[in-house]
Amino acid sequence: MTDPQLTAAQRRALAELIRVFPVADEAGRRFAAAGHELHLVGGSVRDALLGRLGNDLDFCTDAHPDETIAVLDGWAETIWTAGADFGTIGAARRGLRLEITTFRAEAYDRVSRNPIVRYGTTLLDDLQRRDFTVNAMAVSVPAHRFADPHGGLVHLTERRLATPSTPEESFADDPLRMLRAARFVAQLGFRVEPGVVDAMTRMSVDLRRITPERIRDELVKLMCGTDPVAGLRLLVDTGLADEFLPELSGLRLEIDEHAQHKDVYEHTLTVVHNAIAQEARDGATGPDLVLRLAALMHDVGKPTTKVVAPDGRVSFHHHEVVGARLTRQRLRELHFPKDVIADVAQLVALHLRFYGYGRGEWTDSAVRRYVADAADLLPRLHKLTRSDVTTRNRRKATQLAEDYDALEERIARLQAAEDLARIRPDLDGNEIMELLGVPPGPIVGRAWRHLRELRLEHGPLGPDEARAELFRWAREQGVVE
Length: 481
Hints:
By secondary structure, the protein is of the alpha+beta class. The protein has four domains: 1-158, Beta Polymerase, domain 2; 160-244, Hydrophobic Seed Protein; 279-422, no CATH class; 429-476, no CATH class. Helix content is 53%, strand content 9%. It is built from 23 helices and 13 strands. The strands form four sheets. A seven-stranded mixed β-sheet has the order 3-4-5-2-1-8-9. Strands 6-7 form a two-stranded antiparallel sheet. It has a two-stranded parallel sheet with strand order 10-11. Helix 7 packs parallel to helix 9 (212-223), helix 13 (264-278) crosses helix 19 (378-387) and helix 14 packs across helix 17. The chain is elongated.
């Protein structure tokens, strides 16, 4: 029976640990029988104490990888050895994924990007080398002894982020830990100790030793956190953003009495915040990385397009085009997947398209093109455009919201009449080839694009009109006589 004196948080932690202990204890008994230790450790203990433990469990042991494999053989449903060179063996059992790592005193050579793996000899050695005190706690299995040599439980309760060794030593061993600090701020709402922030600021250039893929993965986790804005602020304030995302810091444009304009940096962070609030539209069940990245990058073209007119007015003409180019370049350098790069860049390119709609200038053709250019990104474009309204002028904000409501309603009406989600020519490629008597090739593509333009401009043509337009075009192009 649960102790009635336990706090709600402690009850959740106990429930989480009870859930995984049958498998953890079985593993612990097998290691003990083979003469080895096994400890639930790091993020698994932290998350259990926070009541958010998933199905991935981290353990450490004095057994070396080959010894770990021997212990798990015949018990684990699956064993994988991809991390064996770093002392880690993976296993699956009853829906749980276990990663079991030999005690380490891991260090970087502080020159290259690769760690030097040295096995440690004790649990205390292992906990000493970990990134933060909240990740330097362990629960021994099957004995259930709790180890917390660096005060991680107190720091967890106080939401404080500190390092087991000095911050300088910790970050010198693995500079990625500086990004991890910002990620924990975004994910868990931690407050970083002043000494840790100071070390992050002084050592930000050490991030150059980290591969783009590892930096990208931390940025993704940060952006998908509960409060990415807090993590982004820490990256900018410490200079870490300058090392891999200088466009963000570059948004802090000088504002003076002669060149008044909105603070682009603060505006961008507000748009990120607004985009998160918009995610619930259309039944989103989790963080939308593409939308959040588009919100982050949507104005990165402004610094290079800023122009101050003689009357002091500031303009950023075509910053969406420049921003899309910069976005593609930056996300490529961080090795994001091609589809993510394409989607984010396209949203950046389109985020200004809506403005002007309220002046009554849009024809049905313009609405069709808006939908066609956005394609599958249209729901995200709706959210990004609404998120981009950060004016404090309530009348203006209300008018923009009403204008966009009207645009969405107009899209819905055209959608019902014309199936805008599938804007294609009234004749497909096979029909074009058959009617013109031509083989597959450039002529078919040119004809298809011409008919699509007509479809966008005038709406559905119908089969007879489409065929007549095809032959008219073909005669003008000299394809047929």
